[in-house]
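During the reporting period the student researcher (J.K.) took over the structure-prediction task from the postdoctoral fellow and processed the backlog of single-chain submissions. One of the processed entries is reproduced below for the supervisory committee.
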Amino acid sequence: MLILPIVNNKRVMNVEIKLKGAYKMRQRVTSRDVKAGDIIVNREKYSESSFHGSKDAKAPIDFIRSKSLLYPRDFLVTTREEMETGSYDVYQVPQPPKKVSDGLDELYSKSITDMLCEIPGKPQRGRYVSFQDLGIEENLSDEKIDTLQRIIKDERDSSTWAELFQKSGISDLPDTAAFLNHFECTVLSDTTIPEDSLQDTLKALSNINTRDYRNLKKYYRMAQTNADIYMKISYISKIVFDKPMTLKHADASKQKQYIKKIEEGEYRDVA
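J.K. obtained the following structure tokens:
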């Protein structure tokens, strides 16, 4: 389970992030032709490819794209085996979006790896995601966002935007927002804590400087930087696509959604 810690509205939230459209098409299966913990694209197997065993964090998405050039279609991801039965689950996953940056490709690959590491019937291990560590913020400079704002404000014909973005060297901004829209972000409500409580805990532990204190401080800093980067991307999505990024709330009905909207004049206050 990929967990995105994020600060919003004076709360520190843990958000599960996973690929939209990926679903378990089969559960508890075994097959001679398909191994557990594998990616199958157009009958090509990740386990038998030159990408397997690579130390490159982007190897899964590189494999998927390389085997999808002629026939881009849904592919399969198999989980690890259940030790008692030797069975595993099978995901069907849509094609990845076009490449925007190494950091986004690494995030996509982490999502695929998360499926590969899943064990049927076992609780999933949580793995934190830091947008900053992935380098996702590197292309989101204030100067580039200012240029984006100016183009959209001066040119009302949206059909010309793509060409203007390309000429100005800022096409990666809307592409970043579009890429992240391939992920579903769901707030794990039972894990949300008031930001004030976390700050008080850090203050109380600061004098002893233990490993727990340092880990908690790192976690809080990660949540803050994730929030800053998420807000920028949400703002870009709002002004380009008229649709801010969304954080869903997991509940019984699965109908409620939390939507953080950022108006044009608010960006400078949050970025």
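The committee noted the following: Residues 82 and 120 are 6 Å apart (CA to CA).
J.K. will present the remaining backlog at the next meeting.
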